[in-house]
TrEMBL record:
The keyword Nucleus does not apply. Keywords: FAD, Flavoprotein, Oxidoreductase. This is FAD dependent oxidoreductase domain-containing protein. Pfam families: DAO. It comes from Basidiobolus ranarum. Residues 13-81 form the FAD dependent oxidoreductase domain. The keyword Flavoprotein applies. Its cofactor is FAD. Belongs to the DAMOX/DASOX family.
Length: 101
């Protein structure tokens, strides 16, 4: 699963060239970048062995909630509640109003 060969006509669709042009427009140094051959995949939902829901270990101001794959709709409510709790705890601890009295 996920290893199927896709039938893609790059000449007809030319999306990669348009994407590269947009990226170079934002970051002109990419014009000099070396590109390798591309493997196209579309319509595939990203997933992990387990969804990633929680606070980033290295940068605590970043919170993750992804990797649900085809179960995203089923897991969305519970994961949203989980990440809400984590974010709320972080902001209550880090940004709690302090009195200057």
């Amino acid at each position: 699963m996920g290893k199927e060969k896709l039938h893609w006509d790059e000449e007809k669709h030319n999306f990669l060239q348009k994407m590269k042009e947009g990226c170079v427009n934002l970051y002109p140094d990419l014009e000099k970048a070396e590109y390798t051959s591309y493997y196209h995949r579309v319509g595939i939902r990203p997933f992990r062995d387990e969804p990633r829901v929680g606070q980033d270990e290295k940068e605590p101001r970043i919170f993750h909630n992804y990797g649900h794959g085809g179960s995203g709709y089923t897991l969305s409510y519970g994961c949203a509640l989980d990440i809400r709790r984590v974010v709320k705890e972080y902001f209550e601890k880090e940004y709690r109003p302090r009195s200057n009295l």
